[in-house]
Amino acid sequence: MRSGVRANPMTVVVVVTMAALGLILGYLNKARCAVAPFDASGRSTMFDAIKDSSVCYSDIQFLWLGRDIDNHIFPYIHGAITSDGILTGGTVEYPVLSGVLMWLGAVPAHTDAQFLLTSALILAPFGLVTAWMLGRMAGWSALLWSMGPPLVMYAFHNWELPVVAAAVGAIFVMTLPMPLRRRAVLASVLLAIGFCLKLYPGAFVLPLIAYLVTRGVDGHESADTGRGRWDIRGGLMVAGAAIGTVVAVNLPFAVFGYEGWRASFTFQSLRQADLTTNSIWYWGLRHFYISDQMTPDAYAEAEKSFQDVVDVASPLLVFFAFALALWLGWRRAKVTGTYPWVAVSGSMLCGFMLLHKVHSPQYTLWLLPFLVLLRVPWGLVGAYLLVDLSMGIGVFKYFAALASGADANDEEFFVLVGVWGRALLLLVFFVLFVRARMRVPFPGETDQSSVISPRPATISLTTSPGQ
């Protein structure tokens, strides 16, 4: 099997160089909020004054306080969560590897500005590695990652770059010239590491298992691993590698600080679909429960009912979207002979972003690699970037207007464009991704091997001929 290298070296150099420029601009944008003077806690006194109106807010700077990061407490081990949902003792609301990265960024820091800088220095290499991998796999299309507005806006908004690198790394590993099982096991380990950073890559293990069980490209990539239509053993190896990695990473925290480790999950389960979540639930369903004419008691009861519905409906619909994407991938595999695991992973991500009760602006970084790798119309990609800009800028201008007591109708309009524009395009991408070819065929594929056609596939994934 040939190597996964597709782009010439100069293309990759340009992609990585432009990503470096984007990361520098991204840091400078956020650093506008992290300037002297600082109060006794190390918080920039300018942060609260300009973070929304100047659109330089970042969770990194914000979380310098409130999670004992400023006290340099190692996360989770001494942590807990109070009855009213407040995290204590170093616990943060993210999976353990993100918590460790946060702690590392705080070790040399004594102000939120220093924390932002050291965190950016830790995170930036992950953004560059992602650019390098995308450049190798997709050539000039990878400039979407390097030169698109999201990298500047969100690279240092939160701790997203490591998890994106883990997800892209899993796809990149699957292009390398080594036996299929070995590639798939390595990819599953990377996806499990991603799960320990921000959860979502863990879902991609399922389509990866389907790809391996059906023996890869055209059903013959793992012909040397035994006879039969299915590579069940290989699928179990992939599942075992992913589960084992998650257990190995989380077990020390669960053993030595169970309450703090569990508190991070409890915090997320308690989070409500409120104004800060930017979700279709708050801006859509909530209007059927809440009205301006309600008494305070009726309002509180309606708000509780709304949150109860979201707590049940959101995860159920996310799981349904996952199942639907996997099934659509199976239908496509029956025609093409190859299970489209990357395309299905992209569709699953769209379902999650659309239906989860929280849709933070920086989630766009999760989606960008799929827009780079999968052949969807560039016009739709551009439209998504525009509505994302409407959200990424408009939501903070909206918060600033609300805080000042000014009329916020104009700012709310841009938020609504962002919320519903993203929702519509995520629904479109959910459908298009499953049917999309890779922009550059993976090793062993031809440009037509992933195209749905009326001709019979090389292998059949059904028990009845002619289906």
Structure explained in plain terms:
Keywords: Membrane, Transmembrane, Transmembrane helix. With 467 residues, this protein is an all-alpha fold. The chain has one domain (9-280, 294-435). The chain is built from 18 helices and two strands. It has helices spanning 9-31, 47-50, 59-62, 96-106, 112-138, 143-147, 149-154, 161-173, 180-198, 205-213, 232-256, 258-270, 280-283, 296-336, 341-355, 364-373, 378-404, 409-435; strands at residues 80-81, 87-88. It has a two-stranded antiparallel ribbon with strand order 1-2. Helix 4 packs across helix 5, helix 11 (232-256) packs across helix 12 and helix 15 (341-355) runs antiparallel to helix 18. The longest helix has 41 residues, at 296-336.
In short:
By secondary structure, this protein is an all-alpha fold.
Beta-strand percent range: under 5%
Strand tally, please? 2
Count every helix, treating DSSP H or I runs of 4 or more residues as helices: 18
The assigned structural class equals: mainly alpha
Kindly, what is the distance between the CA atoms of the first and last residues, rounded to a whole number of angstroms? 31 Å
Shape: globular
Uncertain runs: 448-467
Write down the overall mean pLDDT. Answer: 91
Q: What oligomeric assembly is this protein in? A: single chain
Measured as a percent range, the helix fraction is 55-70%
**The number of domains:** 1
Enumerate the strands of the largest sheet in spatial order, edge to edge or round the barrel: 1-2
For the biggest sheet, the summary is: 2 strands, antiparallel
Protein name: DUF2029 domain-containing protein
Region (Disordered): 444-467
Keywords: Membrane, Transmembrane, Transmembrane helix
Pfam families: Mannosyl_trans
